[in-house]
Write a structure and sequence with these properties.
The protein has helices spanning 93-136, 200-221, 256-286; strands at 2-8, 11-18, 27-28, 34-37, 42-49, 54-62, 67-72, 84-88, 137-139, 146-158, 161-170, 228-238, 241-250. It is an alpha+beta fold and 303 residues long. Among the domains are: 2-91, no CATH class; 200-287. Helix 2 (200-221) packs antiparallel against helix 3 (256-286). The chain is elongated, with a radius of gyration of 41 Å. The termini are far apart.
């Protein structure tokens, strides 16, 4: 006969007598659960008994998933005194209280701390990436995107002495790879110095867009005198296939007036956009001042 004491919060210790032996150091349940021995104290299960009077058990073991190995403390018509059972810890009154009032706040705090640590790691990673970009990248003088700058060492002879300097140039960007073996298209700012060092690329691009503006304005001025215009026509070939063909319309034919009006709207919109670009690039050139480049130099390196 085994005698032990069971104590619960706000409950006086109560003495019980059981007729079965305590579990071994480890025990396998009928479903293969592996239980570790625990101090003996009372747990109550609402699944066995009524809601007002939950069935009391004495705890004997617990496995890693929270399943409990218990013995009955009250003999019923279904269970003998001291019979062994396996129940889920969440289905006991004590397990529910622990999960709601102790474990849940703890897990919430743990989640907040974990998220804070992850956020701090992300911030540190972004700062390191930004520092790396600040060391290697510069602003393109034409598209004003942030891209890698190629550093080239140049040796020059000045007054009989060899002087080494660095030349900075923007790498290829703004291109496409259609899969034909080489890139197509490139930003005009490629091979120019970054905007922090020089605005020559900006001046060159400004000259090009001014020429484009003159061409568009000339086309708009003589648009009403044109006797023919070429338009794109979509032709449906079936099965969802569409091809575009060029068609020349002459004055007096159907669709000629509509094509002229559509071209006028396109030219007006393009001219307005180019004029905004001319004003913006002119302002950038006027306000340009040399800046520190590279923006960041890591420790141990000389710019």
């Amino acid at each position: 006969m085994t005698t032990f004491y069971v104590a619960l919060p706000d409950v006086r210790p109560t003495q019980y007598e059981l007729t079965d032996k305590a579990p071994e150091p480890t025990r396998f349940g009928w479903r293969g659960y592996r239980f570790a021995p625990t101090p003996a104290f009372t747990v109550h299960s609402r699944m066995h008994g009524s809601h007002d009077k939950p069935q009391p058990y004495v705890l004997r073991g617990v496995d890693k998933s929270g399943r409990l190995l218990v013995q009955t403390l009250v003999e019923t018509q279904y269970d003998k005194l001291g019979s062994w059972h396996e129940i889920d810890g969440e289905y006991t009154v004590e397990g529910y209280r622990f999960k709601r009032y102790a474990l849940k706040p703890f897990l919430t705090l743990l989640k907040l701390a974990t998220n804070a640590a992850k956020a701090q790691t992300r911030v540190a990673k972004k700062q390191a990436q930004q520092a790396d970009r600040d060391e290697k990248c510069g602003i393109c003088p034409c598209c004003f995107g942030d891209y890698v700058v190629h550093h080239t060492a140049i040796a020059e002879t000045r007054k009989g002495k060899v002087v080494t300097s660095k030349k900075f140039s923007m790498v290829h960007h703004g291109y496409e790879r259609p899969g034909i073996g080489y890139i197509v298209g490139d930003c005009h700012g490629v091979d120019f110095e970054p905007f922090e060092v020089s605005c020559k690329g900006t001046k060159s691009w400004l000259t090009i867009i001014k020429s484009a503006l003159v061409v568009r304005q000339g086309e708009l001025a003589y648009l009403n005198t044109r006797d023919e215009i070429t338009v794109d026509i979509k032709i449906h070939r079936g099965w969802g296939k569409t091809e575009i063909e060029k068609k020349t319309l002459k004055r007096g034919e159907d669709g000629f007036k509509q094509a002229i009006d559509e071209r006028r709207r396109e030219l007006t919109s393009t001219i307005a956009r180019i004029e905004r670009d001319v004003a913006e690039y002119t302002k950038k050139i006027t306000e340009w001042k040399p800046q520190t480049f590279p923006r960041v130099v890591k420790k141990g390196k000389v710019s």
